[in-house]
Specification:
With about 400 residues, the chain is α+β, with helices and mostly antiparallel strands. The chain contains 17 helices and 14 strands. The protein is globular and about 60 Å long.
């Protein structure tokens, strides 16, 4: 098998081929050295235990300076953005811990519970709008994209008329490799959309500093580190990571959950008849989809992973879809099972960089499917599902279904 395929976005839109390659790597070369003409070389880590080991050793494996896999051409483009934004995924050590702590309380249960009623309203409206638009809909375009976006905008305190702009910046950040999503935008056009986002965040920051509200945007705008306001690049990074990662990954898992249930009628019957099974459905869907396909780490000293030497300065790619299908960590990993216990999936990462918004994502999905199954009767697949071509964050880009109200 050609291990260099792991850098190609189109591989991630072909699950059969992707998992065949990852399975081969787990068995024959679990820590593989990858060299291609398009990317700087790196090690690919595919086993669940090895991915966990790297994630736990944040003192040895740093996020900076290469937090995600990018081609040499993409790295040049990203450098122009780095003058304006630095996200949490590119920060390490005590600085990362301090930045993360600024909003951590907002993503704890006691804070999220304040929003549960409003999230439920958004879920009900999303389901009822889909039923009105139906019976034939694209569940991704008509439901899954917009529901979590509306939730995160509610928590941020951003008005709904900015939804289109937030969706565009998400597509620029995560979907640029897919021809259907990128729409052949030039580098200059993508930068223009990004700068529109930066300009808007600057306006929001100024407004919230003048008149703070009870929203996450006010927390970010007025945050301080060691008595000083956040720098512009850290402010923009916070807005970017919350607005995009907080939306796109949940969208992918929400759509992937329905697709998996349609392919597994026994599981569909289980969660319909037993609402107590919905938390398990959420966890299994997040494992099954694995929206974030990888993160990169760079060794700060010589070390060993999976019996292989990683020299100082070399990067490793943590392949979460592989870890989430590792039969040494999961019984029947290629079986979708909403009752799976335990479910130690890697989809939220692990260690210091464990996903800040994981509880929000799970709450959103649980509430959505509670309301979906209350209102929707018959559901059937009426066309071919399609996946996004992306090495970083991906999931379904089309899920054509027929839905009928109860």
């Amino acid at each position: 098998m050609d291990l260099a395929e792991i850098v190609r976005p189109e591989l991630y839109a072909n699950e059969e081929r992707l998992h065949a390659l990852l399975g081969h790597m787990r068995q024959h070369e679990p820590v593989a050295w990858i060299e291609t003409e398009t990317h700087r070389p790196f090690f690919a880590v595919t086993r669940h235990a090895d991915i966990l080991e790297v994630a736990r050793r944040s003192d040895v494996f740093a996020n900076a300076p290469r937090p995600i896999l990018s081609s040499r051409a993409q790295e040049l483009e990203s450098r122009s953005r780095q003058a304006h934004v630095r996200t949490l995924i590119a920060v390490d050590g005590a600085e990362h811990k301090d930045l993360r702590a600024l909003t951590k309380d907002w993503f704890m249960p006691q804070s999220l519970n304040r929003f549960e009623a409003r999230i439920r309203e958004i879920a009900i409206d999303s389901v009822e709008t889909a039923l009105e638009r139906g019976p034939e809909i694209d569940f991704v375009a008509d439901v899954a994209i917009h529901y979590p976006l509306r939730v995160i905008m509610e928590i941020l305190g951003v008005p709904s008329d900015q939804e289109e702009m937030m969706l565009k910046i998400t597509q620029v950040v995560f979907g640029a490799s897919d021809p259907d999503i990128a729409l052949n935008l030039t580098s200059e056009q993508r930068m223009g959309i990004f700068m529109q986002f930066v300009s808007y965040c600057e306006q929001v920051t100024a407004a919230r500093r003048e008149a703070p509200r009870d929203d996450l945007a006010s927390v970010i705008a007025n945050a301080e580190l060691e008595g000083s306001p956040l720098t512009s690049v850290d402010l923009m990074g916070y807005f970017l990571i919350v607005a995009t990662a907080g939306h796109d990954t949940t969208s992918s898992s929400t759509a992937g959950a329905l697709h998996a249930l349609l392919e597994n009628p026994d599981q569909m019957a289980l969660v319909r008849e037993n609402p107590d099974a919905l938390p398990g459905l959420v966890e299994e869907s997040i494992r099954w989809v694995t929206p974030v396909k990888h993160f990169m780490r760079t060794a700060t000293s010589d070390c060993e992973v999976g019996g292989r030497l990683i020299p100082q300065g070399e990067a490793v790619m943590l392949l979460y879809p592989s870890g989430n299908r590792d039969d040494s960590a999961f019984d029947n990993p290629f079986q979708f099972d909403a009752t799976r216990r335990p479910n130690r999936h890697l989809s939220f990462g692990h260690g210091a960089h464990h996903c800040l918004g994981n509880l929000l994502a799970k709450m959103e999905m649980r509430i959505f499917y509670e309301e979906f199954f209350k209102r929707v009767g018959r559901i059937e697949l009426i066309g071919e599902p399609k996946l996004i071509q992306s090495v970083f964050v991906s999931g379904l880009k089309a899920l054509p279904v027929r839905i009928e109200a109860k």
